[in-house]
Amino acid sequence: LCFCRVLRFWPLSFLWSKLSTCEQLGHRLQHLQVISSNKKAQNQDQLMRKANIFVSLLIDVALGIVLMSWLYRKNRIGHLADTLIPVADHVAEELQDLLQWLMGAPAGLKMNRALDQVLGRFFLYHIHLWISYIHLLSPFIEMILWYVGLSACLGLTVALCILSDIIALLTFHIYCFYVYGARLYCLKIYGLSSLWRLFRGKKWNVLRQRVDSCSYDLDQLFIGTLLFTILLFLLPTTALYYLVFTLLRLLVVIVQGLIHLLVDLIDSLPLYSLILRLCRSYRLAAGVKFRVLEQQDGKPLRLLMQINPLSYGGVVQTYRLPTYSCYPRDSWASLCKKLFLGELIYPWKHKGDKQN
């Protein structure tokens, strides 16, 4: 299944690489491939890795079955479906109130009236479309949740990944707002930086990837001055919308990040090694230590050798299982730079990205 050729074609390849549920299923399929392999373990590390994967998979499935039994008891699926639509409507109403506040005089700030009205109505129209879409799906929500709940038998991590994907789908309008605001803000930032180089008699050399000197005529300087003034006075309105929607987007990403941290904890925790350290600590030794029992002149020295067990932190560090880690690992400086320049922050990792 992991190397099926059908998954290499678009759009299945896109969904398989972007949905956290598909990533987790592929990760668990690789674990099953390691467990079911007929190749014998060559050393102690490979044997412990197989045992840790087996115990982790077993506990994950057991927790998923417990969750599934809890969901299908006392019609909790129906109650969850009845709660989901009002919550989505409440979030949409709060966003409408937020946009109405931004279209006025937010925090006493004087915004550009024309651009403020255009952006506010544009986002209000998208919220209207999103509410219509949610109410169109409302008759099928309970059936969808009923079938989604059955996936918990594959493991608690799969259920958590499905929850993360559901959150991403339910907050897709927030993601769209963030993309619109970020693209518009980024366009103005790069436009202002380019026009600022024009005032200083500089220009960006695309071929050499550097800033070179350049002479401009009077018409170019006049048009550049007009464009710079327009972009500068429109920037506060755009920046305010970008700031608000970026904060909402970061809130959603933080919730999804906490879910993925829990999934990574379940996937990577060496449970078999920890149980072995708790019950038979001498099986995981960090070395030996000697204690003097008897030391007298003319008699042989008597020593007591004891096994020094590996600490629990050392067990986790030594036998920790690798995870797929679909979230980006940018440094704080890189993240702040992207936020300031309006570059998009994706909740997944692209192939070939450099990780700090």
From TrEMBL:
<keyword id="KW-0472">Membrane</keyword>
<feature type="transmembrane region" description="Helical">
    <location>
        <begin position="53"/>
        <end position="72"/>
    </location>
</feature>
<feature type="transmembrane region" description="Helical">
    <location>
        <begin position="144"/>
        <end position="171"/>
    </location>
</feature>
<dbReference type="GO" id="GO:0016740">
    <property type="term" value="F:transferase activity"/>
</dbReference>
<keyword id="KW-1133">Transmembrane helix</keyword>
<dbReference type="InterPro" id="IPR007720">
    <property type="entry name" value="PigQ/GPI1"/>
</dbReference>
<keyword id="KW-0808">Transferase</keyword>
<feature type="transmembrane region" description="Helical">
    <location>
        <begin position="177"/>
        <end position="199"/>
    </location>
</feature>
<dbReference type="GO" id="GO:0005783">
    <property type="term" value="C:endoplasmic reticulum"/>
</dbReference>
<feature type="transmembrane region" description="Helical">
    <location>
        <begin position="250"/>
        <end position="275"/>
    </location>
</feature>
<dbReference type="Pfam" id="PF05024">
    <property type="entry name" value="Gpi1"/>
</dbReference>
<protein>
    <submittedName>
        <fullName>PIGQ acetylglucosaminyltransferase</fullName>
    </submittedName>
</protein>
<feature type="transmembrane region" description="Helical">
    <location>
        <begin position="118"/>
        <end position="137"/>
    </location>
</feature>
<feature type="transmembrane region" description="Helical">
    <location>
        <begin position="220"/>
        <end position="244"/>
    </location>
</feature>
<keyword id="KW-0812">Transmembrane</keyword>
<dbReference type="GO" id="GO:0016020">
    <property type="term" value="C:membrane"/>
</dbReference>
<dbReference type="GO" id="GO:0006506">
    <property type="term" value="P:GPI anchor biosynthetic process"/>
</dbReference>
